[in-house]
Amino acid sequence: MRLLFLFALLAALLPLAAQNQQLAQQYFLDGEYEKSADLYLQLFKERPENSFYFDRYVTSLLQLQRFDEAEAALKRQLRQQPEEVALYVKYGQLLEEKFDEEGAKKQYAKAIEELPADQFRITQLANAFIGMTKYDFAIAAYEKGSTLLKNKGLFSYNLGDLYRRKGENEPMISNYLDALAAEPKRQQQVETYFQRYLDKEGLLEAQKQLYTRIQEGNPNDTSYPEMLAWVFIQLKDYKSALRQARALDKRLDESGERVFRIGQMAANARDYETAISSFDYITDTKGTASPLYLEAKREGLLTRRRAITDGYDYTEQDLRILETAYTDFLDEFGINPASAGIAIQLAELEALFLNDLDRAISILTTVVETPGIQDKTQATAKLSLADFYLMQGEEWESTLLYSQVDKKFKEDLLGHEARFRNARLSYFRGDFEWAQSQFDVLKASTSRLIANDALDLSVFILDNLGLDTSARALQTYADAELLVFQNRFDEAFNTLDGLKRDFPGHDLEDDIIYLKANIYQKLRRYQDAATAYQSLIDGFPESIRLDNSLFALAGLYEKQLGDLAKAQELYETLFIDYSGSILAVEARKKYRELRGDAVQ
């Protein structure tokens, strides 16, 4: 009966205690400190082992500036629990409220001095200091705790956080690296902090510390070499990142995947030399049985092509070396569904750079007829094949292939692209009204590039079709554009000069300059191209070609003419003054890259 009575009494008291706790919490949050002090004192008396109640009681007294009462309570509690070092922190807080800074510091130092070899107490004390933003004392608590527990790396991650809050990079990096050594699974967390808080100078400091640790550390430990490779990537030093990746690949006997990723990043950053070295490492060391072999071969070829053709200077010998590499690849693997993309690239190289249209058409015809080829790959080959037939002047073959792709991929981007090219062919032929009707439909394409090109041509035809009854000027300009498409540049120049002579003062004058600038760029006469683009920008501020000219001119200064400041200025002008242009977003991205921002 007595036990039953006791249980019944406890059952009645527990809900009451919980109710008082909630009420005290609400009073405290509402700033009613008189009431919260009384309730927390009552709760503490009922449960003297609960330090939270006592802390809230004293805090309420401090808010009420009842300093003597709070000090008496703290002294009494310290006599009873001298090992409760957090009480010294509270006492120091009280002294600060009384403007006794020196006394407060002595209490904080006393807390650290009396710190027991107990991980929970150490963490509790450090957190008390952190809550008061006294990071130096929190650091001292963790460092003393590490010594007491004889475990140097136990609180390294916490120390790294504290130095990060203080903005002290060198010790922050050192402690985070200590934490990484103790727990390699923290690598992603450390990388996140480094990426977020370290600038270039900070990353170079991390690089220096990692070098030292790798030289002095365990040669079988891979956490630091992996971290160093990551730091190199952040610094865009892909060559050094590759060196680390290859060493790790050999040490761990990996498949080459990390090396492959470095190659992809280097290629995207236009560090083509490093990218090619990455892909060649895989093909040279992993052998044909590797699942990455074929992909590395493909990426190596594509990167070599980009290195030569991506707006940079190259010689015919460079093109021939690349042609041989493609040919060797197809000799090794043949033209099949897996290698069709490579064959299409080779055909483009032959047609657009080596002017061998017959070989390009032969290769693409084989691709189109290859059994088992994916429909989209076949359609891509047909679009290129149609272009090359058009370059040879075989317009019927071109329109037939464009129409096939349009019909098969009616609602797909491939179909939209085919429809656009077919409409452009009609424009070349002089069937302007039909071409414009097609461009008007394509303005709604889900591809912004197709939609923008279609809009430009539609507006261009509309603006110029009614300028003379015979549309001779527009037809002459379309003839010049076709000649450019066919790489017949001398004839294009002559046609444009004739157009300007026969129609002086015509509204096509800015378009003539723009097309000539395009030709100069294709001929790699970059200074002539820049001069032409600049003359259009200066002389025709209302031209529909102006945003394209700004973007093209900025690209020339960035890549070929070596004036990055001028390129940055032009990109800024484009995205600020012509924010409605489809090129504005890309211009802003380029501007930020040149400014040194991290752009994803």
Tell me what the structure shows.
There is one protein chain. The chain has a domain at 508-595: Serine Threonine Protein Phosphatase 5, Tetratricopeptide repeat (Alpha Horseshoe), CATH 1.25.40. It contains 32 helices and no strands. Residues 5-14 have low confidence and may be disordered. The radius of gyration is 37 Å and the shape is elongated. The chain is an all-alpha fold and 600 residues long.
Give a short summary of the structure.
It comes from Neolewinella lacunae. Keywords: Repeat, Signal, TPR repeat. By secondary structure, this protein is mainly alpha-helical.
CATH homologous superfamily grouping of the domain at 508-595? Tetratricopeptide repeat domain
Low-confidence stretches: 5-14
Average pLDDT over all residues: 89
- Give the proportion of residues in helices: over 70%
**What's the architecture of the domain at 508-595 in CATH terms?**
Alpha Horseshoe
Beta-strand content estimate: under 5%
Radius of gyration: 37 Å
Main sheet record: none
Number of helices: 32
Beta-strand segment tally: 0
User: Might you state the CATH topology name of the domain at 508-595?
Assistant: Serine Threonine Protein Phosphatase 5, Tetratricopeptide repeat
CATH class of the domain at 508-595: Mainly Alpha
Structural class: mainly alpha
Distance between the termini: 73 Å
Shape: elongated
Signal peptide: 1-17
Protein name: Tetratricopeptide repeat protein
Keywords: Repeat, Signal, TPR repeat
Organism: Neolewinella lacunae
